[in-house]
């Protein structure tokens, strides 16, 4: 009993320390460099998960920069080993009493629509994990750069939720029945897979990312053709690896081309 109490106290103290650390740090960093704006997701210890604070700040910055004549190119990236591992499910659990989660969902969906219809040039540098709502900040950008470390997934399927944050739209526009496959299985794709099916525009080796970002900021312009050609200087052509599920496209089409989920499950059984 005493051991259990000690363990619970350690967990509680650890949770408090984590909250204090997060409170002290800025979870979203932003820079203004000439006509270029850089936004950085900055919670590396939590894999840059999306909290209500992150959503509010991203929405504020995107709206501000879209209406700002001096902002022409916006770059979004993450610190550490993740771009963003997705939404913080704890904020929904903790907000259930006062329904504050509804405001977070509204702001997030507004942000997604805003990214899809953005008037300025957006570049996402997607290094590391990019999952669920985190990936939805990157896939719809004008140019999305992935690396050999990129891991994409919509893990909502794992707990019975629909593909969230505009992915019901994005996945439905993938070739064949890949969208149904990803939405129902939560399968992971790497950077080369993302390029192959159109979830990313450019593949850049991770060691070249610092120089790429330096070049993009030095452009001081949001001209899409100039930005594209600059990224292409650093990008390489890639094909799905030998273990990629994309080599089994015919099997995916056969299994996931049914009209209903029930029919798909029955066929798989």
Automatic annotation (TrEMBL):
Enzyme Commission number(s) of this protein: 3.1.2.4
Family of the protein in this entry: Belongs to the enoyl-CoA hydratase/isomerase family.
Annotated source species: Picea sitchensis
Pathways per UniProt: Amino-acid degradation; L-valine degradation
PANTHER family listed in its UniProt record: 3-HYDROXYISOBUTYRYL-COA HYDROLASE-LIKE PROTEIN 5, 3-HYDROXYISOBUTYRYL-COA HYDROLASE-RELATED
Alphabetized Pfam families for the sequence: ECH_2 (PF16113)
GO aspect biological process, one term: L-valine catabolic process
GO molecular function annotation: 3-hydroxyisobutyryl-CoA hydrolase activity
Keywords: Hydrolase
Top-rank taxon: Eukaryota
Domain Enoyl-CoA hydratase/isomerase residue range list: 36-268
Role: Hydrolyzes 3-hydroxyisobutyryl-CoA (HIBYL-CoA), a saline catabolite. Has high activity toward isobutyryl-CoA. Could be an isobutyryl-CoA dehydrogenase that functions in valine catabolism.
Protein name: 3-hydroxyisobutyryl-CoA hydrolase
Catalytic reactions of this protein: 3-hydroxy-2-methylpropanoyl-CoA + H2O = 3-hydroxy-2-methylpropanoate + CoA + H(+)
């Amino acid at each position: 009993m005493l051991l259990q109490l000690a363990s619970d106290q350690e967990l509680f103290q650890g949770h408090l320390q984590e909250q204090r650390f997060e409170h002290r740090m800025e979870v979203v960093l932003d820079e203004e460099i000439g006509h270029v704006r850089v936004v950085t997701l900055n919670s590396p210890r939590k894999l840059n998960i999306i909290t209500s604070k992150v959503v509010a700040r991203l929405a504020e910055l995107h709206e501000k920069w879209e209406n700002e004549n001096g902002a022409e190119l916006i770059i979004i990236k993450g610190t550490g080993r993740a771009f963003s591992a997705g939404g913080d499910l704890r904020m929904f659990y903790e907000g259930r009493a006062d329904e504050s989660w509804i405001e977070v969902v509204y702001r997030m969906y507004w942000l997604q629509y805003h990214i899809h219809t953005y008037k300025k040039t957006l570049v996402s540098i997607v290094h590391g994990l990019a999952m669920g709502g985190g990936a939805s900040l990157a896939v719809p950008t004008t140019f999305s750069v992935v690396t050999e470390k990129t891991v994409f997934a919509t893990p909502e399927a794992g707990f019975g939720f629909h593909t969230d944050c505009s992915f019901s739209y994005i996945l439905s526009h993938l070739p064949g029945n890949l969208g149904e496959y990803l939405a129902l299985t939560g399968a992971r794709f790497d950077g080369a897979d993302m390029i192959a099916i159109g979830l990313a525009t450019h593949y850049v080796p991770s060691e070249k990312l610092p120089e790429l970002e330096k070049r993009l900021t030095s452009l001081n312009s949001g001209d899409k053709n100039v930005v594209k050609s600059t990224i292409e200087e650093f990008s390489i052509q890639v094909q799905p690896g030998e273990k990629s599920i994309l080599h089994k496209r015919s099997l995916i089409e056969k299994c996931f081309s049914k009209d209903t989920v029930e029919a798909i499950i029955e066929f798989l059984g």
